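Reply to dn_fold:

You asked what the input looked like. This is it:
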Amino acid sequence: MAKLRAHNLAVSLDGYMAGPDQGVDTPLGVGGTRLHEWAFATRSGRRMHGMEGGAQGIDDSFIAQGDEGIGATIIGRNMFGPVRGPWDASEEWNGWWGDEPPYHHPVFVLTHHPRPPLPMQGGTTFYFVTEGIEAALDQAFAAAAGADVRVGGGASTVQQYLRAGLLDELHVAIVPILLGQGERLFDNLDGGLHGYECVGFSPSASVAHMRVVRVAAG
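and this is what came back:
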């Protein structure tokens, strides 16, 4: 059965998935790019963004696993871009990733404001879903045609799927830095990750990888 997975979600030691003051010039907040330096040092992480070289090893393995068997992705509007309110047709935002985003499959963007589908180069099409997380998940599973669906972030989107008990698997990379403020991954969960358990903890020289899965009822 196809699963809903979240992979390579980088958080600081104090739990932040993004730093403060996110905007056009600081999409990951002040200091937030430091959370992803380990990923861009790997061969798989560099390849996804059209770059050569990079290290192999445990970090590279986790990056590669996060892309295996994925047929569609769900992201929040904040991850798609800094634009708020109704979309501006005269100055439309088409994402952070340029003309060829690194997804290469359908991506469903959670939003309160409708917008026509946005086809990009390399096989990525962004679909804008206004009916909520379950509607986005239904559409993503249909588009994935039997493959798994990935939740890409940001933190609020992951939290919504965790609270609803819909996320089957979660991989978090704990980065040894402190951000002090920003957006925490595990906030707003009514006291914790109910119905989930940690099934793996694998440190590397750069980060510590934690795998969490949903526990079957009963």
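The chain has a mean pLDDT of 94.
Hope that clears it up.
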